[in-house]
């Protein structure tokens, strides 16, 4: 790229002025913590760079600058020393990013402007005045209300997040006056954020009415005695001078002496090597990919990537990038036959299904896409054009259905290829497509899954959705569902999307899936993770898919009874809560609750968030419960309300009308440790430590003539701790079947086993499980209800008795710091972002993750190995039990009553031998079984 000024016919005579502070804080608060290799926080730098890059790509102007505040002290502090005095200091992890952000602007070859003694807004106002004198349009890239006084006469604003222009109409909507009178309104209303005093008792709405009636601030103050409302009249008279001071504070200076003139703000292309080096230094992989894409397009004579594509992020991806894109809509049988023949000959095809919903057991199949090579794909529509529910009438003819191959005929043609053992079918989240095809009578095999490949390679490092991976690895931004189907109440299901747009979207999915597969699959072998993927993650796809198909029966009557009872109990709590509060209020409103607790009752410890409302989360209420009964009642009310809405009421609506059962969806790549998670409904999050929570499981029942069998690993994570920590005393206790918590209490507190009391055992149990999660003295003290010093002494005694645990913890943290991830005993890599974070709280959290991940991840690997073996073992034994659910260390089956004993024995045997022959633990695994008519009885 050259550094000559941009000079193209499209570049108009305009100046874009970016409010740097606005960009910084939007970026910081929009993104989770991110650190580069040396531990420096960079989330705001990344977000700022991404926003600036997008702006640079899209603007059609000849001039551009980013304007920053130089320091907190400006001339306004001389006018009013308290100006902005109450503003908090920037967050600790944001401070080191300010200098890097300025480096980013310079790396983009964009003027970076600031001046001591003046705010960025003053510089923007001055540049705007000079640019208008030279006949330029001015676009201020910001949504800051203080800049709205500049709008008009060729000056507009642009909200960078909403990508929405702000003109006089938008200013009028916000302030109730045109831009020329914004200063007068702000002078009266003041600004609590900047500590602009204004006139007490007058807000923006009232101020706008007064200025519209009297014309301007001075006229209003001169005629203040005419105001009819006594309180308002007295305030205006008493605080007239304060209003005038406020005007000096809010009115922007447009006479700042500029060191760089407007003509010095020409748009110049960034120096590719400089910008690339900056991105690479800060580990901005996505921006490296995007920059490479733009540079590649510039090399072909263009300044924008083609629609739907860009150059990839690395040389390997470059080889997979299509020279051109060819997406075909297949509506003739002969064309489908041609694609199937080509896929069969190729021996590998990427496949994707388009449907009407996210749950494959309730969604309808709308179409299928196929891709054989980069840039070449097709979409086979099967059910487009049905009249949406609620549209049309008896007098209206339904819209013409676009031409498509008959659905059943198309599926019959696809079935042999999709089941052909010589053709590898590649999907992204293949489990969804597997279930969808299985509902059509097609058993897709063999398969590969680009999502799971990414998950095995970099679990915990980032998300594994196709859109994110496409940008990360291919430098390609995919078409979003909203772009083709709309959003909100106007969003349509995929069967209503026109075929041309549906083809672009669906074919791209198959195309990108294939490209990701070809790029990432070789990395499994390079990383030594191919065997792990092929023996643990990939075989689970049909296993978990079949679990989702099976679903589980729920009892409508039990749920109805629970809902009624929960409603009654909520009512009782509400009466008690109102009595404790002294008045009625909306219990579900955190804002109102915070005002009751901290402003009216006066409890200590209230903290306000960014919105100005008090925080009232569960942790806050638990700490307040020692001061007052009200927080405890609120917690109880919330628990009942959640159980009622999330389960007792919602589960009825989630019963599939075709099967009469509830079909949860299991996410295979959502956690950093390898655990599954579930949704729609979330069966893994039912609170079973309370009686109310356990009641929910009573609604999950067996079919007539069957029982539910629950088989659960006993203390599997503690067994893993004993193994990897080399704790011979605990190992022997597990081998001998001794109560492990009593054993720990005996070892740590010196109490003989035959004299063990429940309280001492409870302390040991809390330590045993707390150690797994890196619990602190404060955390343990909270659990046990003791002083932090006493709890810390317990932990010290534990480490003195079991030094192997401390050694393991130190080793895990060091491993995470050295390579960015830790490993389970089976070799799964669990990435630990933030392990080198400068922020102590974030770093401590990452260290706890590093300690816990190998333990929890190994447990996840063990039960997954068991799940893979159980269906084949049942079939070989001639048993017809169905595996329904997996919840962490538990598997739930529906079993014919006559086969209970045989099934229980077989499942326990498989689960207890799940580590072999790969791994021999130093402690035995124990699986415990329970049986009942309901899940609650079985567990």
Automatic annotation (TrEMBL):
Question: Which EC class heads this enzyme's classification?
Answer: transferase
**What is the catalytic activity of this protein?**
DNA(n) + a 2'-deoxyribonucleoside 5'-triphosphate = DNA(n+1) + diphosphate
**What UniProt keywords are attached to this protein's entry?**
DNA damage, DNA repair, DNA replication, DNA-binding, DNA-directed DNA polymerase, Exonuclease, Hydrolase, Nuclease, Nucleotidyltransferase, Transferase
EC number of this enzyme: 2.7.7.7
Annotated Pfam families: 5_3_exonuc (PF01367), 5_3_exonuc_N (PF02739), DNA_pol_A (PF00476), DNA_pol_A_exo1 (PF01612)
Q: Which InterPro entries match?
A: 3'-5'_exonuclease_dom, 5-3_exonucl_a-hlix_arch_N, 5-3_exonuclease, 5-3_exonuclease_C_sf, DNA-dir_DNA_pol_A_CS, DNA-dir_DNA_pol_A_palm_dom, DNA/RNA_pol_sf, DNA_polI_H3TH
Q: Does the keyword Zinc apply?
A: no
A molecular-function term among this protein's GO annotations: DNA binding
What residues does the 5'-3' exonuclease domain cover?
11-268
Q: Which residues form the 3'-5' exonuclease domain?
A: 327-525
Task: Report any one BP term from Gene Ontology.
Answer: double-strand break repair
For this protein, the record's SMART domains field holds: 35EXOc, 53EXOc, HhH2, POLAc
Q: What does this protein do?
A: In addition to polymerase activity, this DNA polymerase exhibits 3'-5' and 5'-3' exonuclease activity.
Q: What is this protein called?
A: DNA polymerase I
Q: Which organism is it from?
A: Oceanibaculum pacificum
Gene from which the chain derives: polA
């Amino acid at each position: 790229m050259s550094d000559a000024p941009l000079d193209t016919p499209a570049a108009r005579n305009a100046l874009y002025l970016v409010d740097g502070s606005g960009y910084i804080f939007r970026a910081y608060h929009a993104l989770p913590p991110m650190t580069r290799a040396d531990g420096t926080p960079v989330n705001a730098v990344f977000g700022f760079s991404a926003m600036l890059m997008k702006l640079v790509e899209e603007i059609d102007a000849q001039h551009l600058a980013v304007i920053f505040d130089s320091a907190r002290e400006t001339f306004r502090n001389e006018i009013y020393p308290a100006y902005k005095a109450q503003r908090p200091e920037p967050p600790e992890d944001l401070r080191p990013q300010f200098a890097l952000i300025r480096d980013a602007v310079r790396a983009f070859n964009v003027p970076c402007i600031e001046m001591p003694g003046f705010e960025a807004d003053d510089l923007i106002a001055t540049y705007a005045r000079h640019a208008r004198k030279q006949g330029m349009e001015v676009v201020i890239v910001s949504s800051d209300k203080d800049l709205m006084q500049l709008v008009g006469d060729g000056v507009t604003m642009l909200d960078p997040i909403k990508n929405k222009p702000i003109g006089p109409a938008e200013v009028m909507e916000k302030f109730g006056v045109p831009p020329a009178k914004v200063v007068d309104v702000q002078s009266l209303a003041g600004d609590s954020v900047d500590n602009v005093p204004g006139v007490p008792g007058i807000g923006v709405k009232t101020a706008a009415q007064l200025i519209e009636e009297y014309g301007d601030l001075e006229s209003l103050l001169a005629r203040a005695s005419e105001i009819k409302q006594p309180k308002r009249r007295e305030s205006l008279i008493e605080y007239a001078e304060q209003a005038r001071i406020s005007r000096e504070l809010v009115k922007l200076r447009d006479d700042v002496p500029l060191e760089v003139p407007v003509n010095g703000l020409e748009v110049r292309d960034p120096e590719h090597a400089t910008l690339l080096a900056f991105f690479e230094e800060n580990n901005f992989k996505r921006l490296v990919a995007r920059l490479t894409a733009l540079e590649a397009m510039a090399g072909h004579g263009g300044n924008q990537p083609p629609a739907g594509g860009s150059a990839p992020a690395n040389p390997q991806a470059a080889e997979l990038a299509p020279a051109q894109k060819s997406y075909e809509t297949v509506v003739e049988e002969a064309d489908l036959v041609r694609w199937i023949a080509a896929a069969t000959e190729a021996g590998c095809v990427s496949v994707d299904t388009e449907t009407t919903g996210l749950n494959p057991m309730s969604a309808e199949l709308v179409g299928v896409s196929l891709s054989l090579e980069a840039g070449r794909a097709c979409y086979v529509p099967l059910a487009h054009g049905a009249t949406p529910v609620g549209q049309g009438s008896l007098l209206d003819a339904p819209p013409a259905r676009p031409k498509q191959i008959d659905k059943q005929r198309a599926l019959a043609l696809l079935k042999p290829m999709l089941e052909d053992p010589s053709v590898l079918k590649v999907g992204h989240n293949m489990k969804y497509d597997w279930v969808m095809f299985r509902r059509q009578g097609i058993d897709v095999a063999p398969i590969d899954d680009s999502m799971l490949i990414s998950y095995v390679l970099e679990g915990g490092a980032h998300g594994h959705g196709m859109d994110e991976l496409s940008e990360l690895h291919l430098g390609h931004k995919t078409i979003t569902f909203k772009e083709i189907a709309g959003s909100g109440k106007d969003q349509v299901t995929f069967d209503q999307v026109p075929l041309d747009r549906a083809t672009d979207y669906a074919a791209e999915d198959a195309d990108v899936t294939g490209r990701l597969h070809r790029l990432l699959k070789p990395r499994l072998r390079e990383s030594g993770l191919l065997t792990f993927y092929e023996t643990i993650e990939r075989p689970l796809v049909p296993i978990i898919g079949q679990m989702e198909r099976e679903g589980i029966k729920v009892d409508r009557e039990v749920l109805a009874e629970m809902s009624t009872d929960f409603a009654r109990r909520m009512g009782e709590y509400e009466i008690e809560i109102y009595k404790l509060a002294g008045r009625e209020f909306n219990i579900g409103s955190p804002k109102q609750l915070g005002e009751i607790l901290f402003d009216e009752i006066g409890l200590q410890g209230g903290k306000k968030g960014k919105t100005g409302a008090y925080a009232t989360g569960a942790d806050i209420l638990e700490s307040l419960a020692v001061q007052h009964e009200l927080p405890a009642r609120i917690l109880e009310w919330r628990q009942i309300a959640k159980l009622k809405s999330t389960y007792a009421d919602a589960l009825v609506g989630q019963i599939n009308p075709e099967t009469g059962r509830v079909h949860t969806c299991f996410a295979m790549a959502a956690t950093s440790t390898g655990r599954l998670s579930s949704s729609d409904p979330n069966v893994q999050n039912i609170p079973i430590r309370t009686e109310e929570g356990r009641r929910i499981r009573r609604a999950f029942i067996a079919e007539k003539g069957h029982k539910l069998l629950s088989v659960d690993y006993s203390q599997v994570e503690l067994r893993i701790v004993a193994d990897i920590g080399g704790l011979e005393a605990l190992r022997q206790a597990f081998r001998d079947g001794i109560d492990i918590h009593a054993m720990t209490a005996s070892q740590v507190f010196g109490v003989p086993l035959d004299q063990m009391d429940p309280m001492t055992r409870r302390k040991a149990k809390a330590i045993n499980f707390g150690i797994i999660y890196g619990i602190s003295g404060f955390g343990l003290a909270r659990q046990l209800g003791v002083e932090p010093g006493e709890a810390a002494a317990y932990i010290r005694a534990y480490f003195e008795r079991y030094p192997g645990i401390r050694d393991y913890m130190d080793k895990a943290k060091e491993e995470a710091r050295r390579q960015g991830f830790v490993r389970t005993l089976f070799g799964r890599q669990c990435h630990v972002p933030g392990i080198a974070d400068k922020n102590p709280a974030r770093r401590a959290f990452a260290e706890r993750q590093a300690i816990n991940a190998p333990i929890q991840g190994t447990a996840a690997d063990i039960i997954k190995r068991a799940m893979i073996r159980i269906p084949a073992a049942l079939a070989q034994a001639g048993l017809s039990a169905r595996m329904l659910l997996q919840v962490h260390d538990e598997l739930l089956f529906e079993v014919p009553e006559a086969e209970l004993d045989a099934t229980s024995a077989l499942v326990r045997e498989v689960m207890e031998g799940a580590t072999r022959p790969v791994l021999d633990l130093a402690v035995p695994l124990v699986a415990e079984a329970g049986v009942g008519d309901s899940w609650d009885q079985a567990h």
